[in-house]
Design the sequence.
């Protein structure tokens, strides 16, 4: 007796495709228990053991870096803050406990630290892919694609590196040496394949990233009298946002 296996294979393929579209979910976020400004150390301790940083925790951590504290009452307020600061696109509606995509976190980091990047990022702004490439080159983030994630420990490493390039004290003093490779591992949950879109040249990308200086010199790529980059590109493009 002959069976037609094509319908079964088609069904399996559909299920696998649907599964691949679903974000990697965690049961909870560290900020759910440790949201108060005086609980920053407890928040970091809980985050360090998490297999992936969630959207809720990533926003909480980045708000601490920019403002020194996060006064948001819940995830909805953090998302609103992220959209207002142009870290997130206006259509961003991913779940609080979903693993945060490294792309939007890179864009947020570039905006917070005013990393201008090379010519490409100066033209298109700190959108996910270009921002990520700049921070990989600067050894602030590990080699990833923009829709992959960071573990909790890797996110703490990321926050420390942002703090260091700003000349401020690290969030967890003594735990980071900047001559170490950014991140701990290229494999995190939801990121098992450690996909790499080609290898970076030994000396970094083809263009040198630029960081804002106290008295920056005019750059040919930006017309005199034009608006700052944050105003030229008010709407970030988050690859992880639903279309």
Sequence:
């Amino acid at each position: 007796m002959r069976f037609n296996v094509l319908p079964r294979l088609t069904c399996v393929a559909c299920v696998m495709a649907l599964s691949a579209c679903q974000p990697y979910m965690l049961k909870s976020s560290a900020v759910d228990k440790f949201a108060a400004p005086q609980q920053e150390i407890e928040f970091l301790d809980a985050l360090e053991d998490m297999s992936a940083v969630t959207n809720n925790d990533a926003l909480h951590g980045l708000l601490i870096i920019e403002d020194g504290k996060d006064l948001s009452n819940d995830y909805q307020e953090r998302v609103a803050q992220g959209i207002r600061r142009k870290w997130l696109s206006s259509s961003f509606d991913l779940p609080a406990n979903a693993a945060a995509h490294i792309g939007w976190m890179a864009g947020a980091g570039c905006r917070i630290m005013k990393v201008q990047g090379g010519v490409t990022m100066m033209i298109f702004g700190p959108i996910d892919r270009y921002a990520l490439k700049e921070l990989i080159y600067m050894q602030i983030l590990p080699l990833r694609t923009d829709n992959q994630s960071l573990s909790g420990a890797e996110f703490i490493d990321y926050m420390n590196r942002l703090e260091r390039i700003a000349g401020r004290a690290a969030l967890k003093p003594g735990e980071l040496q900047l001559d170490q490779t950014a991140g701990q591992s290229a494999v995190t949950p939801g990121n098992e394949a450690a996909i790499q879109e080609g290898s970076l040249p030994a000396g970094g990308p083809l263009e040198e990233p630029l960081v804002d200086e106290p008295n920056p010199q005019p750059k040919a790529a930006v017309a005199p009298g034009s608006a700052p980059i944050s105003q030229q590109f008010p709407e970030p493009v988050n690859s992880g946002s639903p279309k």
Q: What stands out?
A: Residues 23-175+188-212 form one domain. The mean pLDDT is 73. The radius of gyration is 19 Å. Residues 117 and 134 are 6 Å apart (CA to CA).
